[in-house]
Design the sequence.
């Protein structure tokens, strides 16, 4: 009888131990379940952070050890979330035309300056919103005529005081900042702050190629061309340059036998290009400016008369190409704008402070959270997959869920996921932002599992030694494991 009691007691004790430690054992099994993806020689030294939850309940579905890793472009999800929260989906930027001085109504001579007042609009004359801005300068010319201005006896001033700081974060690397995706921000961003270099190449490989035009034309630009022809397909060039410097260098290869191969590079001085475009339009309409062009970086209090203002598309429209096409420039503008909204200063520093405050306000885990820009272009950005998923969950539970998730690429359909996961259950199922740079791959968003459960997930991998196609298959395998669970 005593032996039966002892046996019964031991069983109860064992059950109690299992109930106490089953979460730990479950977590251990969960962590080890991911190790099968990283057991090969090329991945043994890789670091990864994986997190997934039930979108509705917040229940944890999968979690690896939470490591703080470089984000690449999934950082844009965080930027978009903060911007929607702080600015709101209908927020717009403005760019204005104004003048100072006095206007002689008899002669039409303005004794003063014409001013373009930049408002930090990331999309001003952007190729992503051609129709929105196509008539802007024409409308400005018409307003000059209606106001009776026939001659500007002064200068064209570019008021850049809305964003008076370095145009690029300090952590961006030299290989990036001369290329189109490394274009810096400006109070007067213009045409995505990039220009096109049009090349022609010979039929044989290994020979110099020629530049036959640049669009838009940049006055004073010196471009050292070291590009060669190659049997390889695609653009394998790197442009080297820096904001404000009109001497740039481009090297690498383009395919053989091309008559008009286009490479995009970062404009060294976008406000100056905007000024040239407006002055050309004014000249065509017989409205000369007697002086030159100058930049101003602070408001000296001089009375200005606003002639007209161009508004941007609303934020809810801006974030669509930002996330689907991974536009670094748009993300960096939004980072600074949330800084302006929070503290009155559109700067990198104030924007990053707003990021931290956002996490504190909503109880988002900030352990290992080290933001350094808004786009993910710097390798110094770091966060855990849990932080990213908790951020997405905040948006999911809020009023901007549909706006946010509709801005994300759809697997096999559009954006950076257009050619991904085709022929799998992930096609047209996964909505997610991707991130990619040397030895960094990430993806985060939402999907439905085989059972119909909607989940929010983030997968971040650093320091691997795989080809791009192999890394894509690895991410696909991990997401399929979510789908089948």
Sequence:
């Amino acid at each position: 009888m005593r032996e039966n009691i002892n046996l019964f007691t031991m069983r109860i004790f064992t059950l109690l131990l299992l109930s106490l430690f089953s979460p730990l054992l479950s977590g251990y099994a969960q962590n080890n379940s991911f190790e099968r993806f990283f057991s090969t020689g090329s991945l043994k030294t890789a670091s990864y952070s994986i997190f997934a939850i039930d979108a509705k309940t917040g229940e944890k579905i999968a979690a690896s050890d939470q490591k703080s890793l470089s984000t690449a472009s999934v950082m844009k999800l965080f930027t978009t979330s903060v911007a929607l929260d702080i600015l709101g989906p209908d927020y717009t930027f403005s760019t204005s035309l104004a003048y100072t001085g006095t206007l002689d109504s008899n002669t039409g001579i303005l004794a003063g300056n014409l001013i373009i007042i930049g408002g930090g609009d990331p999309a001003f004359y952007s190729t992503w919103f051609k129709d929105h801005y196509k008539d802007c300068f024409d409308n400005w010319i018409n307003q000059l005529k209606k106001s009776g201005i026939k001659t500007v006896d002064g200068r064209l001033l570019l008021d850049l005081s809305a964003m008076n700081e370095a145009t690029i974060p300090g952590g961006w690397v030299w290989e990036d900042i001369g290329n189109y995706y490394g274009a810096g921000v400006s109070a007067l961003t213009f045409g995505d702050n990039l220009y096109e270099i049009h090349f022609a190449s010979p039929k044989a490989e290994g020979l110099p190629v020629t530049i036959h035009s640049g669009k838009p034309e940049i006055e004073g630009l010196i471009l050292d061309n070291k590009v060669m022809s190659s049997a390889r397909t695609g653009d394998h060039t790197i442009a080297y340059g820096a904001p404000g410097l009109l001497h740039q260098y481009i090297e690498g290869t383009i395919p053989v036998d091309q008559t008009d191969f286009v490479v995009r590079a970062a404009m060294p001085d976008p406000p100056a290009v905007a000024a040239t475009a407006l002055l050309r339009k004014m000249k065509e309409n017989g409205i000369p400016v007697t002086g030159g062009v100058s930049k101003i970086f602070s408001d000296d209090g001089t009375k200005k008369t606003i002639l007209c203002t161009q508004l941007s598309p609303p934020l809810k429209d801006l974030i669509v190409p930002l996330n689907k096409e991974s536009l670094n420039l748009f993300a960096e503008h939004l980072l600074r704008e949330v800084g302006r909204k929070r503290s009155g200063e559109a700067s990198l520093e104030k924007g990053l402070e707003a990021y931290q405050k956002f996490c504190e306000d909503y109880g988002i885990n900030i352990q290992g959270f080290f933001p350094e820009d808004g786009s993910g272009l710097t390798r110094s950005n770091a966060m855990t997959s849990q932080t990213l998923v908790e951020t997405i969950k905040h948006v999911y539970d809020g009023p901007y869920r549909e706006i946010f998730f509709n801005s994300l690429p759809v697997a096999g359909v559009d954006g950076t996921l257009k050619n991904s996961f085709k022929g799998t259950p992930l096609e047209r199922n996964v909505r997610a932002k991707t991130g990619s740079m040397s030895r960094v791959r990430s993806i985060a968003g939402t999907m439905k599992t085989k059972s119909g459960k909607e989940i929010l997930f983030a997968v971040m991998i650093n320091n691997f030694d795989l080809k791009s196609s192999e890394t894509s298959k690895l991410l696909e395998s991990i997401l399929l494991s979510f789908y089948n669970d």
Summary: Residues 1-29 have pLDDT under 50 and may be disordered. The CA atoms of residues 385 and 458 lie 5 Å apart.
